[in-house]
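Predict the holo structure. Ligand: adenosine-5'-triphosphate.
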Amino acid sequence: MSAPAPARPDLPLGMVTGVPIEFDRIGRSFGSVHALHEVSLTVAAGEIVALLGPSGSGKSTLLRICAGLDEPTTGDVRFDGTSQLGLPPHRRDVSMVFQHFALYPHKSALDNLTLALRHGRGLPKAAAVARARETLAMLGIAELAGRRPPQMSGGQRQRVAIGRALATRARVILLDEPMSGLDAQLRVELRVEIVGLLRSLGTTALFVTHDQAEAMAVGDRVAVLGEGRLQQIGTPDEIYDRPATRFVAAFVGSPPMNVWDGHWHDGRLRADGFDVPAPAGAAAFGVRPEHLTLDLGALDVDSPGAGTPGVGTPGVGTPGVGTPGVGTPGVGGLDGGSLDVGVPEQPGSLRGVGGSEQLRLSGEVVVSERLGAERTVHVRTRAGVLAVRVNAALALTPGAFVVLRAPTSALTYFAPDGDRLDHP
Ligand SMILES: Nc1ncnc2c1ncn2[C@@H]1O[C@H](COP(=O)(O)OP(=O)(O)OP(=O)(O)O)[C@@H](O)[C@H]1O
């Protein structure tokens, strides 16, 4: 039997040195299913990278390849420059935390950790017990030492499972949806703890999740996988503000970016309901819900004559509006529900003050959802239903007629293959 991977029992917790990981053009096929295509990704020593993607995008497959539980069909995975291909899991100095705890149910928390250290790391019993106790204390669950998993809550069990992974002081920790069985509040609490611990330990970590809020909160960088391809890797800000592809734009954000398809001609992208300046070759554009300003409807963009089928009754006040937007933060430019009246050059766009062009759309409120201090309003326009973020003080009711605006600088453009295009 081969020796276990090099353990560092001499190091106190907090002094583990993570290794850099390099995935080099990883491909993995299961028969005709291509789970991963040419995925190249480098994780720095001590970095936490969140692997984010919808179900079936290949996240777990990539993690399993990293752990040695699976081998790629093509490509290489290197730790600190050394290929790990062919090495079994126990030779890779990797610890894993799974969604389903995987604790021994008939053993106490202390024994679960001690066993991992003795058998996985070859520590003598006394050292293993001391390390296990130290880790439980570090996680704030010393009082659970004598309890068996069935005597613990889901959150406690997951803390023990995380403790077991951390106690081994592996240089790489892989977490596969570690909190998906827990309730929302506990998830938020636990993720704050996990991030704090991983940072203080200095291990390199890959954290798989399909929850974009969790990925953005946990990752130093977020790697977005879609259909087995790496769509983008970047800091949470980069992923949100500069999505590399339409897939990322439509996956990240709650609600995600509004995206419309159009036909490009002569520097403009057009479809029923909008006409905006766009870079050559654009096939779609998008705007984040918070970049749209919502005004209560009145005589404006799509005034009668401009033709606005099915978007309410302009010019007859503000039906269905609970709180007129006067002085309401986040509700722009209104005075008792009337707007500065302009004649649009094209449907869905307008020269604003100072000559800068704006996207303008009008429509009818379909649904208004209260989310803490904000509200997400879904508005049906000629271009389709879109989401807008407004201050929660603006109580809009279904049927209200509204006008939406955004500066064209807030628009994101996409090519036919989904890649983002830079502004004209
Ligand atoms: N052992 C296997 N045999 C056949 N197909 C597999 C196997 N493992 C994974 N796949 C397929 O590979 C693709 C990627 O699966 P994977 O589990 O990596 O996705 P995921 O992003 O982790 O999904 P989830 O979030 O649902 O766990 C899927 O189409 C899946 O059905």
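The domain at 258-300+356-421 is CATH 2.40.50.140 (OB fold (Dihydrolipoamide Acetyltransferase, E2P)). The CA atoms of residues 221 and 235 lie 4 Å apart.
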